[in-house]
Design brief:
Layout lengths: L3 H9 L4 H8 L3 H9 L6 H11 L3 H4 L6 H11 E5 L7 H10 L3 E5 L5 H5 L3 H10 L3 E7 L4 H10 L4 H13 L8 E6 L5 E6 L2 E6 L11 E5 L6 H14 L2 E2 L8
Length: 252
């Protein structure tokens, strides 16, 4: 059976079988067999290819990696676990934001703490977008029942919708910035997700506790793991159902 996942990953990165072959040191016909016949490369080749196309080994070759090793790799993707969001060092936030080179993604209900604690956030995001970095911000629709429910669960009632509107006052400066998109979502979030290239902070949501008081995982993507990819997929699925906060301006 052809390996369509590998083929698609190569196409998205603009890579040919010859380019893959040169990168890992095999004959191009061998790469063709990996694609057309679904043969699994040796582990050293799988690791190199997965890193090159920025996909996990478990995604490209779901049956090739023993479960025990897959579990160990997933554990290695966890850099640090913080007991509460307030324990995440400010310099970690600054490093992740400042060093991002390809993509910044923020998925929250409000996330008001971020621009409040990082006064240069909006200016940095504008500069990142100007440098060609994709910036995606997903906020809860303040008029949605999901935002109201989360406010009730945190014990702050209608204040959650107000926090969303407050954070928009910060992000208003990004309204006409090319490369920055701000959307509303109406999703029940089980985690807030903050992605910076191949690193991520995942803030769990716990019933009865504000997000500042709940655990955060610092993840770093590894070619052989799929824990990071799980949260990336979750972010992308919310994005697919979201709508722009501001309607595009139509010239008269």
């Amino acid at each position: 059976m052809p390996n369509d996942r590998l083929r698609d990953a190569m196409l998205r990165k603009g890579l040919t079988p010859t380019a893959i072959a040169e990168h890992v040191g095999v004959d191009p016909k061998t790469v063709e067999r990996w694609i057309t016949q679904g043969r699994a490369p040796y582990p050293r080749y799988r690791h190199a290819i997965a890193a090159l196309v920025r996909e996990s080994e478990s995604y490209l070759w779901p049956n090739a990696m023993p479960q025990e090793r897959a579990n160990r790799v997933a554990e290695s993707e966890v850099v640090q676990v913080y007991p509460r969001r307030a324990a995440v060092p400010d310099d970690l936030w600054r490093r992740l934001i400042s060093q991002a080179q390809e993509r910044i993604g923020i998925l929250v209900y409000a996330g008001l703490f971020l621009p409040e604690q990082q006064p240069q956030l909006v200016a940095t995001l504008k500069a990142k977008a100007a440098a060609g970095i994709q910036v995606e911000i997903l906020l809860g629709d303040p008029d949605s029942p999901e935002v109201a429910q989360r406010g009730a669960e945190e014990g702050i009632g209608d204040a959650m919708g107000g926090k969303v509107r407050n954070v928009l006052a910060f992000y208003q400066r990004l309204r006409d910035v090319q490369g920055v998109t701000v959307h509303f979502h109406r999703t029940t979030l089980y985690n807030s997700i903050f992605r910076f290239d191949d690193e991520m902070l995942v803030n769990s949501h716990v019933f009865g506790f504000p997000a500042a008081h709940t655990p955060v995982m610092h993840l770093r993507r590894l070619a052989g793991g799929d824990l990071f990819g799980t949260y990336t997929d979750s972010f992308d699925r919310v994005w697919e159902t979201s709508v722009p906060v501001w309607k595009p301006v139509v010239a008269g």
